[in-house]
Design brief:
Order of helices and strands of chain B: HHHHHHEEEEEEEEHEEHHHH
Number of strands of chain B: 10
CATH superfamily of the largest domain in chain A: Butyryl-CoA Dehydrogenase, subunit A, domain 3
CATH superfamily of the largest domain in chain B: Butyryl-CoA Dehydrogenase, subunit A, domain 3
Low-confidence stretches of chain B: none
Helix content of chain B: 40-55%
Distance between the termini of chain A: 51 Å
Largest sheet of chain A: 4 strands, mixed
Mean pLDDT of chain A: 94
CATH topology of the largest domain in chain B: Butyryl-CoA Dehydrogenase, subunit A, domain 3
Number of domains of chain B: 3
Largest interface: A-B, 46 and 46 residues
Structural class of chain A: alpha+beta
CATH topology of the largest domain in chain A: Butyryl-CoA Dehydrogenase, subunit A, domain 3
Number of helices of chain B: 11
Helix content of chain A: 40-55%
Low-confidence stretches of chain A: none
Largest sheet of chain B: 4 strands, mixed
Oligomer: heterodimer
CATH class of the largest domain in chain B: Mainly Alpha
Structural class of chain B: alpha+beta
Chain lengths: 387, 379
C-alpha cells in the first residue's frame, strides 16, 4: 500500500467510527446545515457531536495548517478526505463564509496573530462571518463603493450602508470593504474586520422572491473599528477583496462538491418516472453537462491546489456552475409538474422545489454576475482587446 | 489521482505537441494530401515517424514491444492530431486496433502488433451498418464453415478500410440482429477473398469504405476473444475508440478556438478590433468555458478507463457527448466570427468545421451518447 492508500484506510475507518448515521443523510433544508457561531442552535445532538469530533481532529478545515485549527493535509490527502466523506454521503461538519472566503484571504494576507486568532475561531465554528461588499449604488461596479472609514488615530469611524449581506442578521462578525481614501478609487479601500455587536451596526432582512430572507441591508452609524482589525495594508483592501472574490466564486460555482454537481435524471425517474421522450432527452443532456462540470470542478480544485489553474479560472467556474444550477432547477420544476408549484405544503417540505428554484436565480448575480464573469474571462484569460 | 497530467505525461505532451505541430501541420499534411487527391488519406512516412517516436505502440503492452501506456497518453497524441487536423490512422490502429488485439491470441498478436509498433501496418474498425452508429444491432453474419467462418454482409464508415492490413470486424455468429450475445470480433486480413471496398472521400477529406463481405472465408484463428461472447470486448474497444475520438475532438476545438481568438485580435471593423465588441467577447468566453469543461470530462473518463472503474462506461459517453457539443460550438462560432473569409477554402477554420462533423459522427454522435447516458443511469 502507498502512503495515500494507508491514509485513505485511516480516514475511512475514522469516518465509519465517528460520523453519526444522521449526518450521513442528505441535507434537506437550511436547518440541516451547521453554520456555527455564537448564537447557532444545533438541530440535533448528532449535528453538534459531528462538529465536535471534527474540530478535535482539524477536519472542519482539513487543508489548513494545524497551528490554525486545521489538519494540515496536503492536496492529495484533502482530496481523499472529500472523496471518503462523499462516499458515505457525509455532510460537511461545518459550513461557513469563514472557511470558504475569509479564511483563504487571511491565510494569504493576515498577520500571524490574526491567523492564530481568527482562523482558529473559524475552524472551531465559534464565530460566524458575513461579507460586507455590495452597496446600493455599487453592485457589479463594486469598486465605486462609498462606505467610509474616517481615520481617528488608533481607530476608524465607519459610516455607510451595505446590501445583499448574506445572513448579516445571524453573523457575529463582518469582513467589510471600507473606503479609507476618497481620492483613490482602487487604492483607497481597506479590508476591515469588526464585531456585528459594535454600537452603530444594524441589519434589516430583505424578503426575496423565494419568500425567504437570506440577505440583509446592513447599516453603519459611527461604528468604531480599532486599527488592528485591518487585513493587509491600508488602502490595499482591493487586493484582498479580489483574492477573496476568487474563493467566493469558486464556492458559488459548486466546484467543491455537493448536490450542484449531481446528475438528476435518475432522481426524477425514481420520483415520478419519465414517460415523455423529450423530457428524457432534456434530462440526459443536462446530466451530460452536470457530470462533465463535476469533472471540471475536480480538475479545477486539483489544479488550483498546485498552482496550475489560471488565476482567473474561478470566474469561468462561477459562470458555468451557476448557469448549470439554474438549468437544473428549471428542469426539476418542469419534471415536478404541479406538485413543484406548491408553496407551503407539507408534502413539498414548505415549497422546497419552488423556493429552491427561485433561490437559484440569484446564483448568477451574487458574487459577480454572469456577464461580469464573461468580461473577466475575455480580458484576463483570452486577452481580448479593450476588454 | 489528480485530474492533470503526471510529470511523465506532461513530458510526453511537450514532445508530441512540437512533433505534430511541425510534421503534421495542416499545410504539410491535410491540404497536401487533399490537393493531391491522395487515395490512402494519410502519409505513410508520417506514420513511420509516429513509430520512430514510439507513439504507435502507446496502447501495446510492453511484452508485445509497445509502451504499455493508457488512454491518457493516447489522448495526448490524439489531441495534437486533432489540433493540427493531421490525417492519421493513429486512432483506428494504435488505439482501437491495439485495444482489440490486446485480447487476441498470441498468434494474432504476432501477426499484427509488430507491424503496428513499427509503423508499417494500419488497422480499421468495421462496425457500423448503415449511416448511423448503432452497435446494438449487428447483422453482418459469420457462419461456421469448416474450421473457420464465412462472412456475409456490409459494413459502412470503415475509416482507412481500403488501406488497412486487417479489418477488426464485429459480426454475428448466432442469434438475431439486436441480441446482445452472439457477437464475435474477427481480425480479417486484407487479402481475404470476397472483400469489396467502395472507398469514398468524406467531407473532411478522410477516406472511408463501404465494405462488402461476399462469403469471405476466414480461418478460426482470426477470432479475437470468444465466439458469441464478443459484446464485452466490443464495449472495451468502443470505450477506447470513443474516448480517443473525444480527445481528438477537444484538439479540434482548441485549434479552432485558437485561430478564432487570434482573428478577433487582428480583424478591424468600425475602426475597432472586432475582439473589442462585447457581443463577441461574451460568446468567446462562453466557448472557452465549454471547451475547458469538455477537456475535464475527457481526462476524467481517460483516468477511469485506465483505472478499470465501473463508472468508465458512463463517463466515456459523457465525455464523447460533451466534447462533440463543445467542439461543434467552437467550429460554428469560429466560422461565424471569421465572417466572409470563413467561407473560403483558403482559411483553415472551415477545415476544422468539416473535421468536427466527421469526428462527431464517429462511434456515436451527441444524441447517441445522451441516450446511452440515460440508459446507463437507469432511465
Amino acid at each position: 500500500m502507498t502512503d495515500l492508500d494507508t491514509f485513505r484506510a485511516e480516514i475511512r475507518a475514522w469516518l465509519e467510527a465517528n460520523c453519526p448515521a444522521e449526518m450521513r443523510k442528505p441535507v434537506q433544508d437550511e436547518d440541516d446545515v451547521c453554520w456555527g457561531g455564537r448564537n447557532f442552535v444545533f438541530k440535533s445532538a448528532a449535528q453538534k457531536q459531528w462538529l465536535d469530533v471534527c474540530v478535535a481532529k482539524g477536519y472542519t478545515v482539513p487543508d489548513w495548517p494545524q497551528a490554525y485549527g486545521g489538519a494540515g493535509m496536503n492536496p492529495a490527502q484533502a482530496k481523499i478526505w472529500r472523496e471518503e466523506l462523499a462516499r458515505i454521503g457525509g455532510r460537511p461538519p461545518l459550513s461557513s463564509f469563514g472557511i470558504w472566503m475569509l479564511g483563504p484571504a487571511l491565510l494569504k494576507f493576515g498577520t500571524e496573530d490574526q491567523k492564530v486568532h481568527y482562523l482558529g475561531q473559524i475552524a472551531r465554528g465559534e464565530i460566524r462571518w458575513c461579507q460586507g461588499y455590495s452597496e446600493p449604488g455599487s453592485g457589479s461596479d463594486l469598486v465605486s463603493l462609498q462606505t467610509f472609514g474616517e481615520d481617528r488615530g488608533d481607530h476608524w469611524v465607519v459610516n455607510g450602508q451595505k446590501i445583499w449581506t448574506s445572513y448579516a442578521n445571524k453573523a457575529d462578525w463582518i469582513f467589510c470593504l471600507v473606503r479609507t481614501d476618497k481620492a483613490n478609487k482602487y487604492q483607497g479601500i481597506s479590508f476591515l474586520l469588526f464585531d456585528m455587536t459594535t454600537p452603530g451596526v444594524s441589519t434589516r432582512p430583505i424578503k426575496l422572491i423565494s419568500g425567504n430572507s437570506p440577505f440583509c441591508e446592513t447599516f453603519f452609524d459611527n461604528v468604531v473599528v480599532p486599527k488592528a482589525q485591518i487585513v493587509g495594508e491600508l488602502n490595499r483592501g482591493w487586493d484582498v477583496a479580489k483574492y477573496l472574490l476568487g474563493h467566493e466564486r469558486e464556492m458559488i460555482s459548486g466546484a467543491g462538491g455537493g448536490e450542484r454537481l449531481n446528475a438528476i435524471g435518475a432522481v426524477v425517474n425514481r420520483q415520478g418516472g419519465i414517460d415523455n421522450p423529450v423530457l428524457r432527452a432534456d434530462l440526459a443532456l443536462f446530466d451530460i453537462d452536470a457530470l462533465a462540470f463535476a469533472a471540471m470542478g475536480e480538475k479545477f480544485l486539483d489544479e488550483a491546489k498546485v498552482g496550475k489553474a489560471h488565476p482567473a479560472q474561478p470566474n469561468m467556474m462561477k459562470y458555468s456552475g451557476t448557469e448549470l444550477n439554474k438549468r437544473r432547477h428549471e428542469l426539476l420544476m418542469a419534471a415536478g409538474g404541479s406538485t413543484a408549484l406548491e408553496w407551503d405544503s407539507a408534502e413539498t417540505r414548505g415549497g422546497a422545489p419552488s423556493r429552491g428554484w427561485l433561490r437559484t436565480k440569484a446564483n448568477s448575480i451574487e458574487g459577480g454576475t454572469s456577464e461580469v464573469m464573461l468580461n473577466v474571462v475575455a480580458k484576463r484569460i483570452l486577452d481580448l482587446p479593450g476588454a | 489521482m489528480p485530474l492533470y497530467h503526471t510529470e511523465d505525461q506532461a513530458m510526453l505532451a511537450e514532445t508530441v505537441t512540437g512533433f505534430i505541430a511541425d510534421e503534421g501541420a495542416i499545410k504539410a499534411q491535410l491540404r497536401r494530401l487533399r490537393d493531391a487527391d491522395d487515395a490512402a488519406g494519410y502519409d505513410p512516412k508520417l506514420w513511420k515517424q509516429f513509430a520512430e517516436m514510439g507513439l504507435t505502440g502507446i496502447c501495446v503492452a510492453e511484452t508485445d514491444g509497445g509502451l504499455g501506456l493508457g488512454h491518457v497518453e493516447a489522448g495526448i497524441v490524439l489531441r495534437e492530431v486533432g489540433r493540427n487536423l493531421t490525417p492519421s490512422p493513429f486512432l483506428s490502429t494504435a488505439v482501437i486496433g491495439a485495444t482489440a488485439l490486446a485480447h487476441a491470441s498470441d498468434d494474432l498478436k504476432g501477426r499484427y502488433l509488430p507491424g503496428i509498433v513499427a509503423g508499417d501496418s494500419v488497422l480499421a474498425l468495421a462496425l457500423d451498418e448503415g449511416a448511423k452508429h448503432r452497435p446494438e444491432r449487428i447483422a453482418v453474419k459469420a457462419e461456421r464453415a469448416g474450421n473457420g467462418f464465412r462472412l456475409t454482409g456490409r459494413k459502412d464508415f470503415v475509416v482507412y478500410g481500403a488501406t488497412a492490413d486487417a479489418l477488426i470486424v464485429a459480426a454475428r455468429t448466432s442469434g438475431s440482429d439486436r441480441d446482445a450475445d452472439g457477437v464475435t470480433l474477427f481480425a480479417v486480413p486484407r487479402d481475404a477473398a470476397g472483400i469489396g471496398h467502395n472507398a469514398v472521400r468524406l467531407v473532411d477529406s478522410s477516406i472511408a469504405s463501404h465494405v462488402t463481405f461476399d462469403g469471405v472465408e476466414i480461418d478460426g484463428g482470426t477470432v479475437i476473444g470468444e465466439v458469441d461472447g464478443g459484446r464485452a470486448l466490443l464495449n472495451t474497444v468502443l470505450n477506447a475508440g470513443r474516448i480517443g475520438a473525444a480527445a481528438e475532438l477537444t484538439g479540434v476545438g482548441s485549434g479552432a478556438f485558437a485561430i478564432t481568438t487570434a482573428y478577433l485580435k487582428v480583424r478591424k471593423q468600425f475602426g475597432k478590433l472586432i475582439g473589442e465588441f462585447q457581443a463577441l467577447q461574451h460568446r468567446a468566453a462562453h466557448l472557452y468555458a465549454e471547451l475547458e469543461i469538455a477537456d475535464a470530462a475527457v481526462i476524467k473518463a481517460q483516468q477511469l478507463l485506465d483505472g478499470g472503474s465501473a463508472q468508465a462506461d458512463l463517463m466515456v459517453s459523457v465525455a464523447k457527448a460533451k466534447a462533440t457539443m463543445a467542439t461543434n460550438l467552437a467550429v460554428r462560432e469560429g466560422v461565424q466570427m471569421h465572417g466572409g473569409v470563413g467561407m473560403t477554402d483558403e482559411y483553415d477554420i472551415g477545415l476544422y468545421m468539416k473535421r468536427d462533423r466527421a469526428l462527431a459522427e464517429f462511434l456515436g454522435d451527441a444524441s447517441y451518447h445522451a441516450d446511452r447516458v440515460a440508459t446507463l443511469s437507469g432511465y
